[in-house]
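Figure-free illustration: sequence to structure, shown twice.
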Amino acid sequence: MSEPMVSTADGIVQGNAAGGVLRFLGVPYAAAPVGSNRFAPPQPVTPWPGVRDATVAGPNAPQRTKAFPGLDIVPLIGKGWVSGDEYLTANIWRPDDDRTGLPVMVFIHGGGFVIGSKDAPVQDGGTFARDGVICVAINYRMGVDGFLPIPGVPTNLGLRDMIAALTWVRDGITQFGGDPGNVTVFGESAGAMAIADLMASPLSRGLFRRAIVQSGHGGMTRSVPVMQRLVKKLAKILKITPDVSGFGSVPYDALIDAVEAVSAPTARIDLRDEGGHEPVFGISRFVPVHGDDVLPQRPLDALANGAGAQVDLLIGTNAEEMNLYLVPTGVRDKIGRLLATYVLHKSQPHARKLLKAYGIGAKGRKPGQALTDAMNDLVFRWPARRFAEAHQGRTHMYEFDWRSPMFGGQLGASHGMELPFVFDTLATATGEQGLCGPNPPQDLANRMHALWIRFATDGSLPWAEFNSETRQVYSLVRQEARHEPVMPAAPYLP
């Protein structure tokens, strides 16, 4: 096995070669976020002497993962916290040949801004390198360190990390054989939300040419004053002052304990905006904030004013996103009408009317199914369409509608289901507890993976653009685009 080396601006890195792919793992794009750097914007890497070993993925951001009923989610989110200071790093995969000027795809992982890493098996970028693309995956600060607007700390540090990583790609990917003028950023869930926010940010302008937003949109940001309620709540739980010295004094394990406490469904904290809407619907307490230099405006307002118009956008959702949260837990089949209304009312001021629009109370219609269908559209599908409508550049929309046979066929086209198809890594999500069940269709993975590469290479896709009149949405299973009617959720979102 050869030992490939690349000379970067910070020093020489040595990766490994296998199966026609060169891998460089754990390459720093910013200094370790510890000590005086912990609550600071990402700082430059200190150059290293000699050759740096880039064959081991290295640490990731502090986090705590939990088992999921009946599903192996390690392939989707990784094994949890790998401790270590130097975790603002990137993995780079490229073909094992002499080609240069290759398209570049930068992946930003999901996980509710509190879990996940660049090293989850489902997102192995070697499949893209195999097919002629340079793939990069990054870590970023999460939770308290990345997305809590602590007084005295720059806001949106997690987004600033991503901007630093994309700047590092722009300035250094040529050394790995990539074209810095042909960068596509793609991500799923929280990673997709972040990309939608970066499209709206003046600080990331010019850092990427295209964006693929999988099960995400720009509707999940909060104002700083609303997020200050979370700062104070966490400080109270931790018995510290709600400032940088207070949070800086707490060990990570205790911080994560507090994050879990405030994230519990029973936690008493109101994160609704002035209109009574909670834009994240309780899925995560930690999200980017608007009203700073990273996001001066709400992302949809920024897009309406022309932000991101120079970026080609591929955006889409899965047909049954909320099934991941409500089917394995049994909530969908157990919840009654009163509780369904109460749950939704915590995020949506017109919960009764909205659930009625989704058939609650109709004969033979289970309240939990009405809640699930409503939240599919409220949380993911309709806000993604609104983002597509607001984007003034070229926009294509897809729907991932392949249904997993897990949980007696009830898991369906749930959140996260498209990832092993996009990366052509079905083996990681196959089996008795695999997200995709025992025998997912390889031909669909072949087609999706090729579509993503085609878009990243030259921006082309085989269906018409999306706009508010024609509303063309491409079914990845049927391989055709159709007009999609406005959803019943539309009048109930701000």
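We now fold a second protein in the same way, so the two outputs can be compared directly.
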Amino acid sequence: MQDFSGLGLAAPLLLALNKLGYTAPTPIQAQAIPHLMTGRDLVGIAQTGTGKTAAFALPILHHLITHPQQAPRGGARVLVLSPTRELASQIAESFRSLGSEMQLSVQVVFGGVPHGAQIRALQRGLDVLVATPGRLVDHLDAGAAHLGKTEFFVLDEVDQMLDLGFVKSIRRVVGTLPKRRQNLFFSATMPTEIAKLAGELLNDPVQVSVTPVAKTADRVNQQVLFVETHRKRDVLVDLLSDAGMARTIIFTRTKRGADKVTQHLDATGIAAVAIHGNKSQNQRERSLAAFRAGRVRALVATDIAARGIDIDGVTHVVNFDLPEVAEAYVHRIGRTARAGAEGVAISLCDGAERDLLRNIERLTRLNLPTQDRRAAPGSPEAKPPARSATSPRPQQDRRPGAGPSRPQERGFGARSAGAPGSNGPSASRPRYNSARPQGERRRGDRDAIQPA
């Protein structure tokens, strides 16, 4: 397929693509769009940064143009579910850009922001609704959303949905959809769980795959530096002294770790911002905007940003901590080498992370090049700094019956008694719970994503 005109897309879409500078479809677009134009259900497998969003947005928009009708009040003609707020915003923006030459109503629904504007948009009716599962279930439970006239149902990053325990929320949403609809599943990997879910929810789907499972980006130069834990921050500063690391994303395992790395970089004169689950939506958007605009060189993130953050020109990805789930490595390094560019991924690995490194190499079927950056034995740098005798210790709650001072956390998908969808007692009418975590849960200090 040489250009988009050969796909039979409507003229307004070809005009928008031309204005955006897109001339030729990517492999996933060239293979998926013809099937979707004929109304087939589809499972699309492609690594991050290959144009999956346009692969499903273009044929959907073509249908909206060629089959015009009023958007259903309280619902939408198109529903796209996304695991994170950032990815949901990015998908909605892609729909707006590709549909710039048509009258299109698009709304993003996710947690961490007031409900009012979302409810008003639903009441008017939408062409395209992009949502995270938790907040959409809130609207369903409160009677603000009605999805019985949805024509297209899209699940994006399905493997992450399943990894993060979204199955119940997905089934809750699917139960409100009409049986006659077109289903589209897009993902970067294809574990057996996705095949099982596709078999349940899709009707005779065609599968399109343009990359092997768990294949890392071809244009990423990957390397591993062996270094002691206590020296990682100093090694990171040394790496960032290279002016070639002009736009770098640094991944940490915990929210607290992300803040500490950011503070350390700022203290050494390297402009950095952090993004993780303890940041408000406005803080996260400001940090991303500063990074996109080049006002800061480094974005320090937990795995909340491992997928869905599409930022042009990311030169380097640094795994300050190796991920506990090997698949996350693939998505982390996919933040660089996008849109045909090349990139570099550097992983800092201490002795306790060797098993994690082996898991990554098994998954990717690669022997990653390594370099020993450990301090020479006997040198002062080889020993971690001693803990001060006056260092404050965690305070415990001494009230009768009180447990540890750290609050107990709920598991994946947990809801308090009485919340919508729980098995416990509830009020006669579901109420919005604006205080519940939106997008993340806490396991200790780790930043894992929950239905938002």
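Summary for the second example: The longest strand covers residues 220-226.
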